[in-house]
Write a structure and sequence with these properties.
Blueprint (H helix, E strand, L loop, with lengths): L1 E12 L2 E12 L3 E5 L6 H8 L7 E6 L2 E2 L5 H6 L2 E3 L12 H9 L6 H14 L15 H13 L5 E5 L7 H16 L4 E5 L3 H7 L2 E6 L2 E6 L1 H5 L2 H6 L5 H9 L1
Parallel strand pairs: 3-8, 3-9, 6-7, 7-8
Antiparallel strand pairs: 1-2, 1-4, 4-5, 9-10
Helix pairs in contact: 3-4, 3-5
Bound molecules: adenosine-5'-triphosphate and magnesium ion (MG).
Length: 248
């Protein structure tokens, strides 16, 4: 069953075309990666899908409904959640309270929101952080809290924008495990933007590549990692180097 369909999506900022006629679809249950160089338009695409930006042209269908004209909160209500590349901890909230904010999308009851938040924190292995202020946590933990908060709304589709950026290898392993858990055990369809190629190649089923706002390739991780056009536009500078350094 198709969960998300993006048709000929274009987003202009003044004279700049940040997303240029992008089309793709996602089946329910998939785990898809979105990669490309800095400024390729990845975050813009998430902003358009999640209703933060109005598209210039094109159409977005989510779970059978045309959501193109909807605002961000309306899109969220339909079961599409996201994290933000640059995370700003919400005020003076503890980890548990932060995740409860997500849960309040589904319930008005404080006790039910708390119980749900606790369950999600356990699922993501960060229950021991519950009482910390989010703003006091290291980046890796904050990233996990943003994931937990997004999951609080029980989304059908979760968009993750660089949750592994700036993390050390152990932290990347841990967040990889969490992403797998969210997908495999919690049954949430996931699309993730990531520059950490190891994560993309190990975790995703399919990869979409953007360059200068255009979709230049799409395929399974193996074929993407050997695609000459992708290597030239993006991977040449990163993945090949990473592979060499991990090989030697
Ligand atoms: N709100 C905005 N107003 C004007 N231009 C924008 C806006 N958001 C993004 N852009 C521009 O659109 C282009 C794509 O930016 P975007 O943030 O989507 O790239 P990205 O692929 O997420 O890059 P990165 O890997 O660095 O996060 C860039 O040239 C950026 O400067
Ligand atoms: Mg970005």
């Amino acid at each position: 069953m198709t969960l998300l369909e993006v048709q000929h999506l274009t987003k202009n900022f003044g004279g700049l075309t940040a997303n240029d006629d992008i089309s793709f679809h996602m089946e329910k249950g998939e785990l898809v990666g979105l990669i490309g160089p800095n400024g390729a338009g990845k975050t813009t695409l998430f902003n358009c899908i999640s209703g933060l930006h109005a598209v210039t042209s094109g159409r977005i269908v989510f779970d059978g409904e045309d959501i193109t004209p909807l605002k961000a909160h309306e899109v969220a209500r339909r079961g599409l959640a996201r994290t933000f590349q640059v995370y700003v901890a919400a005020g003076d909230l503890t980890v548990e309270e932060n995740v409860m904010v997500g849960c309040f999308m589904k319930t008005a009851s404080r006790s039910r929101a708390r119980a749900h938040a606790d369950q999600i924190l356990r699922e993501l292995n960060i229950r021991d952080l519950s009482d910390y202020m989010v703003s006091e946590l290291p980046v890796a933990a904050q990233k996990r809290v943003t994931m937990a908060t997004a999951i609080g709304s029980d989304p059908k589709l979760l968009l993750l924008d660089e949750v592994a950026a700036g993390l050390n290898p152990n932290e990347v392993e841990a967040i990889m495990a969490s992403i797998r858990h969210v997908h495999d055990e919690m049954g949430i369809t996931v699309m993730l933007i990531e520059h950490v190629m190891e994560l993309v190649m190990k975790v995703t089923h399919r990869v979409i590549v953007l360059d200068y706002g255009r979709k230049i390739a799409e395929g399974d991780p193996e074929s993407i990692s050997t695609n000459p056009q992708v290597i030239k536009a993006y991977l040449g500078e990163r993945y090949v180097k990473e592979q060499r350094s991990s090989a030697g």
